[in-house]
Amino acid sequence: MRQYAELFHRPGLRQAEFFSVLGRFGYVACGLGALFLGTARLGIGVGGLGAGGLMLGVAVGSPVAGRLSSRYGTSAVYATMACVSVPGTALALAGADGRSVPSFVAGCCVIGMTTPPVGAAMRALWPRSGTPERLRGTANSLESVVTELLFVVAPPVMGVLAAVHPGLALALADGCVVVGGVGFSCTRLVRECLGPDGGTRRRGSSRQVPLPVAWLVGVGGVTAAVTGAMDVSVVSVLGDAGDAEAAGFVLLAPALASVLSGVAYGLLPAESAPGRRFGRLLLVWLPLFALVALQSDPWLLAGALFLAGIPMAAIGIEEFNLLSRIAGSEARLQEVFTWAGASANIGVACGNALGGYVAEHAGSSVGSWIPAAAVATACALYFAGSLRFRRHMADAIHSPAKSNG
What pLDDT digit, counting tens, does each position of 231-264 carry? Predict the structure, then answer.
């Protein structure tokens, strides 16, 4: 575990990580808060619509935040976004209390659009603050594990708060967004290392998304769709088997496996040829989700999901490791990471929607194969792209993202 201790070599990194975790907890909790509030006041359909609107807002707002941060600096942009999220929360609360569906959904969309993507910024802060190359994979592992833990911790916490008062969960969640976003923005290390990119104004519209980056971001979106479809398929299969109440506990199995494997994966040395591990992990994932699709007993399903969860964190870690390599410049890392986050949000939403549609119209036995089909799609997209962008992958071995400073 020495590698994890070595990460915090520079003063200010612990403070930035603390506020980053708080802000990310707020992001995860806001979606749950919107779901609980909308369900309590307006019904489950509206609750799901509000949570979906919030995720859509995040998918739209994150890339914009990344581009504005490159132009004006992270501190100014993120602090402003965090504060603007407060009126969105007020609108959502007022809409729910007034039984106004448009106001509630609009407020949730505003919350999503103005939630600062502190996770992407924290990932970019590690290399830009001077983290050695050998520890950057460990840093990505840390961020992936932290995010996974938040998705485990947030649901019970928000459930308790919503039981006290439906609006309390959303209000406190947005409070975490505000404190985390403003606190992260005010950290001295963030002001120093994530300031404006001077080349942005000169390059202007020429800052298009490079094709290799767009390809890898797309692959990441498809892998995220796997988890979205997984959640829906588990609920559907267990519901048809009469064990719907076990779904929440069964879904803890892949999360636990992902956390444990992610911690261990961060201790591995960086690979000499970027991309090989990512491809192998996707290939291993495919038969594991085929095994998941064959289970309907809660215990057997939990065991299969635990096995499928083992490569889950590693796949996310390798995606960000590769993006760090092919981004071209450390000054672009934060912007690229916000694209990856937006792609993941869209992927999860698509996985949820497709999994639910297939389960409803073709049955849970067919819907349970959607996660495996998504993995197969990710494999095809990745290996086809790796042949097309072989030169970029090879260049990444000798030319990791460079600093413009």
Answer: 888 878 888 888 777 777 888 888 889 888 888 8
pLDDT tens-digit readout, 194-227:
888 655 444 444 456 678 888 889 999 999 889 8
**Tokens at 349, concatenated:** 């939403």
> What token pair was written down for 86?
């407060």
Beta-carbon neighbour count of residue 273 at 10 Å?
A: 10
Q: Is the pLDDT of residue 187 over 50?
A: yes
Measured in degrees and rounded to the nearest 5, phi and psi for residue 108 equal -65, -40
Higher pLDDT, 333 or 292: 292
User: In whole angstroms, what is the distance from residue 82 CA to residue 367 CA?
Assistant: 38
Distance CA 319, CA 325 (A): 10
Find the helix packing angle between 333-362 and 298-326, rounded to 10°: 150
Q: What is the separation of C-alpha 66 from the centre of its chain, rounded to a whole number of angstroms?
A: 15
252 or 303, higher pLDDT: 303
243: exposed, middle or buried (Cβ count in 10 Å: 0-12, 13-18, 19+): middle
Q: Is residue 222 a contact partner of residue 374, using CB atoms and an 8 Å limit?
A: yes
First-to-last CA distance in the chain? Answer: 31
Q: Could you give the C-alpha distances from 343 to 212, 298, 346, 348, 373, in angstroms and in order? A: 15, 31, 5, 9, 18
Identify whether the C-beta of residue 338 lies closer than 8 Å to the C-beta of residue 274: no
Mean pLDDT of 43-60: 83
Measuring CA to CA, which residue among 330, 327, 340 is closest to residue 274?
A: 327
H-type alpha helices, 207-275 = 211-240, 247-250, 252-265
Q: Identify residue 348 by its one-letter amino acid code.
A: V
**SS3 for 146?**
helix
- If one compares 31 and 218, the residue with the highest pLDDT of the two is 218
- 264 closest CA partner among 211, 317, 321, 207: 317
